[in-house]
Design a protein that fits this description.
Mean pLDDT: 74
Structural class: mainly alpha
Strand order of the largest sheet: 1-2-3
Shape: elongated
Largest sheet: 3 strands, antiparallel
Number of helices: 9
Low-confidence stretches: 6-12, 147-158
Strand content: 5-15%
Number of domains: 4
Distance between the termini: 82 Å
């Protein structure tokens, strides 16, 4: 038996999936063993009364796709539905690219020539991408959390955040009259300056620094 299920497709009508009625008297563990599914899937199947085959499997209908037309449609969907509403950790171009990928996967569908069909294919692909990113970050349902310290100050690779932290501690210690922070940032800087001066005075190379420091 087949039925239109799921939220994918034309205004939530879904896509065609095979459904199997759940026999009476079965519990969650029996459903898990029979259909080889997870606990959550088995519980949902028991609640609705039937099991949906390959519910989470993406449908792919390969076919030709005009790249320029696909990107135009994806950007159009973004401008209409998602502009200004993305979480702070998701880029617009990544969302648009996911919409184009979904259009490419469904380019061979019989209804693909319909503009409305393309619109909802791209939109559902973008929404799915956003939801997956939220799950990867462990975000809860509700308003987006504000960026933390590391997300703000460690945008680029490297240990710039550590240097900023040390400099901040040094400034605080200098202002309080304690002569710097306990991390010896000022002392190490002064020691480096002395070694460089000795190297320059003797006309040696930087490779001689360990011997001079000793």
């Amino acid at each position: 038996m087949k039925k239109l299920v799921g939220a994918y497709g034309n205004k939530g009508e879904g896509r065609e999936r095979e459904i199997i009625p759940i026999p009476e008297g079965m519990d969650v563990k029996a459903i898990m063993a029979r259909f080889d599914c997870s606990y959550l899937t088995a519980r949902a199947s028991l609640k609705r009364g039937y099991h949906i085959v390959d519910y989470l499997k993406r449908s792919i209908c390969p076919g030709p796709l005009d790249p320029e037309g696909g990107y135009r449609m994806a950007w159009y969907v973004y401008q209409r539905k998602l502009k200004g509403k993305l979480p702070w950790y998701i880029e617009a171009r990544d969302v648009v690219q996911e919409g184009v990928v979904m259009l490419l996967e469904m380019a061979g569908h019989p209804r693909f020539k319909e503009r409305k069909f393309q619109y909802y294919v791209a939109l559902n692909g973008m929404k799915g991408f956003i939801e997956r990113q939220r799950r990867l970050r462990g975000a809860r349902i509700g308003p987006e959390e504000t960026p933390g310290y590391e997300e703000v100050y460690r945008e680029n690779a490297g240990a710039a955040w550590l240097a900023d932290w040390q400099a901040e501690r040094y400034e605080v210690g200098w202002a309080s009259g304690s002569g710097g922070s306990p991390d010896t940032w000022r002392k190490s800087t002064a020691a480096t300056a002395r070694v460089v001066k000795r190297i320059a005075k003797k006309g040696l190379t930087p490779l001689d620094a360990p011997r001079l420091a000793a």
